[in-house]
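Q: what does this look like with magnesium ion bound?
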Amino acid sequence: MFQMIRSLMNKLVDGSTGSLHKPDGVGGKVSTDRQRGTFIGLAVGDALGAAVEFQRPGTFELVTGYRDGGPHRLNAGEWTDDTSMALALADSISSSGWNLNDQAQRYVNWLQEGMYSVNGRCFDIGITTRYALAQFCATKDALTSGNRSEGASGNGSIMRLAPIPIRYGHLYPAKLNELAGFAEGSSLPTHASEQCVSACRYLATVLAALIQGEDREAVLSPDWKPLRQLNAVHPLHPLIQEIAHGSFRHRNPPEIVGSGWVVKSLEASLWAFHEAGSFEEAVLKAVNLGNDSDTTGAICGQLAGAYWGESGIPEHLRSGLARMDLLETALAGLLL
Ligand SMILES: [Mg+2]
């Protein structure tokens, strides 16, 4: 009965949702608006943060919209590796199904040929990713190319995660472990440490629940039932567990930082998202933490986009985004 009422409420509230995406007939109500919001939100957060990447908080004029510049000298609305890698992952899933070697090869195509880039070249790549792709080129084995050591726990796999909850989110909640398995697998080619893998499993589950219209407070609660299910199968890394149990609620900057470390990056993204009143407020809070601002923005943008949907992203942020055609192609492939 509760499910029926919730479904009815969603229909009433989410007027923009014309179609349901339930490829296998599994799971709750998936909203196309929220699926699209997850991917577009990633790119919007990435593009907003690009202009102040590597700058310490308090040393730059606060970001309020797209602006030119930053270390890669981009034009306003242009995005970086976070979105490029998400586009590569999406293209792999829609063209080849689930194939880790194909995913890694498409990252190599981006690195070597500038495919999936906003301007035709690879201009922004993390150290861990570069090393892993060199490994892959040598071994052609994406299952072992990612560094498993805890010291290599960058945020490079959660920043590109959106295609997983968009394509496989229907597995939630009935087949939660399968969804978490896809999230874990997507991390391995470049980021195979337990911290990175745990972060992907947790974030994909949160995004899938938000895409299905679950309540934000409930999803981010330490008592959230799916969190217990994730831990029952394979306990999350203790540092990811601490975040899932609400570390972002009782910390504030400077304890919250826009770091490239997956743990602090995920925490910062949830800090910016959990009490924000709108998509825009959330992503601006995230990017104004500075430092790895584009990636904090990309992760927070996925959360905020999944929660508020594409229709919750202000028009000026959607129309100002560069190469929307690439995002539309990726979404068309994922939402078949
Ligand atoms: Mg970037």
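The CA atoms of residues 94 and 332 lie 9 Å apart. Residues 1-27 have pLDDT under 50 and may be disordered.
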